Amino acid sequence: MRVEYINPFVETSFQILKEVLGGADVKRGDLYLKSTAMPVMGVAALVGLAGDVEGRVLFDMSFETALNIASKMNGETLTQFDDLAKATISELANLITAQAVTKLHEL
To answer: Taking burial as the number of CB atoms within 10 A of a residue's CB, which of 33, 53, 78, 85 is the most buried?
Structure first.
């Protein structure tokens, strides 16, 4: 995997999370490639890409992280990972993917 394909997703994720979390302290951990299967952490959003850029993007996070993000984005405390939380995380994944693909086209 070439780093120029990964960086737009990392940069866009960082920017959008800072925006939607209202200035919360967003930190980026170490990046690494895994060649073996990994279990889902709790919540996964898979976005398919077609056209000039083809592939799949996987967003994976714990239930706690997903609920915290969904709560912030909706301006209310969510206590269950219900349809609203699912839709919110799906929208976040789509938003990040769309902006990252736009950056890929600029390469």
So the answer is: 85
